[in-house]
């Protein structure tokens, strides 16, 4: 597995690189977002670890570029601990977020978990029906693409998996804990903003009016469900 580390702090790059290599990973490094992007477009990268504050191109802008072309797992590793930074990163499609100073053992464990879940997801996606339709929405599971009225919907990896989970279980109400466990496949440890940010991003893509959703409904005090209120074709 090839992992990219993008961080302008040389000590951190070396520490993470050595630790990951000791665990059998192949590691490439970059000291700014531009170098990281050049590696991403020229190499087969399976997971990226990004700092937020980097010269030339910061982590947020780099993630925006990544999500235009790829659903690889992305972990933010940053000294910025402002909650809005975390919400922004998750909203842009980050899969995990660790604040500096961090436990190198925890980072290695999270890298392994993200790669394992991504590989399991990719290997199992073709075992069931490849196309799902609900209302004006459809998903091609073989290509990992979502559509509304036949037009592609731009979604990050977690948004896609959440929408797929809802479309595989229409009309069913899920708590935030259930959604987190289903998509992240681990114990619920991130605050409610994680699910809320991803739900909001999905609504911005699939709803005509995100303030009056006709697909993803909030069930007050419980969670969310996919319930189409328009006419089905």
Task: Give me some keywords for this one.
single chain; 233 residues; alpha/beta; Rossmann fold; Arc Repressor Mutant, subunit A; 2 domains; 5-stranded parallel β-sheet; 4-stranded antiparallel β-sheet; 8 helices; elongated
The chain-level mean pLDDT equals 86
CATH class group of the largest domain: Alpha Beta
Helix percentage range: 40-55%
The spatial strand order of the largest sheet comes to 2-1-3-4-5
CATH architecture of the largest domain: 3-Layer(aba) Sandwich
Q: Judging from the principal axes of the Cα atoms, what is the shape?
A: elongated
Calculate Rg over CA atoms. Answer: 18 Å
Number of DSSP strands? 12
Terminal Cα span: 44 Å
- How many helices? 8
Q: Output the CATH topology of the largest domain.
A: Rossmann fold
Q: Main beta sheet, described?
A: 5 strands, parallel
């Amino acid at each position: 597995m090839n992992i990219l580390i993008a961080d302008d702090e040389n000590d951190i790059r070396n520490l993470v690189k050595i630790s990951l290599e000791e665990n059998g990973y192949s590691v490439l490094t970059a000291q700014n977002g531009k170098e990281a992007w050049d590696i991403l477009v020229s190499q087969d990268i399976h997971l990226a670890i990004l700092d937020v504050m980097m010269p030339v191109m910061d982590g947020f802008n780099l993630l925006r570029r990544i999500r235009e072309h790829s659903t690889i797992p992305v972990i933010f590793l940053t000294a910025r601990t402002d909650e809005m930074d975390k919400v922004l990163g998750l909203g842009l499609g980050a899969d995990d977020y660790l604040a500096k100073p961090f436990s190198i053992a925890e980072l290695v464990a999270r890298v392994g978990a993200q790669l394992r879940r991504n590989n399991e997801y990719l290997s199992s996606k073709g075992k069931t029906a490849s196309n799902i339709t609900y209302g004006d929405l459809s998903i091609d599971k073989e290509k990992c693409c979502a559509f509304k009225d036949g037009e592609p919907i731009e979604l990050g990896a977690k948004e896609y998996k959440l929408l797929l989970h809802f479309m595989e279980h229409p009309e069913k109400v899920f708590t935030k804990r259930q959604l987190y466990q289903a998509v992240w496949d681990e114990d619920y440890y991130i605050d409610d903003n994680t699910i809320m940010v991803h739900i909001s991003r999905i609504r911005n893509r699939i709803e005509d009016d995100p303030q009056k959703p006709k697909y993803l409904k909030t069930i007050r005090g419980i969670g969310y469900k996919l319930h189409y209120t328009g006419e089905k074709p």
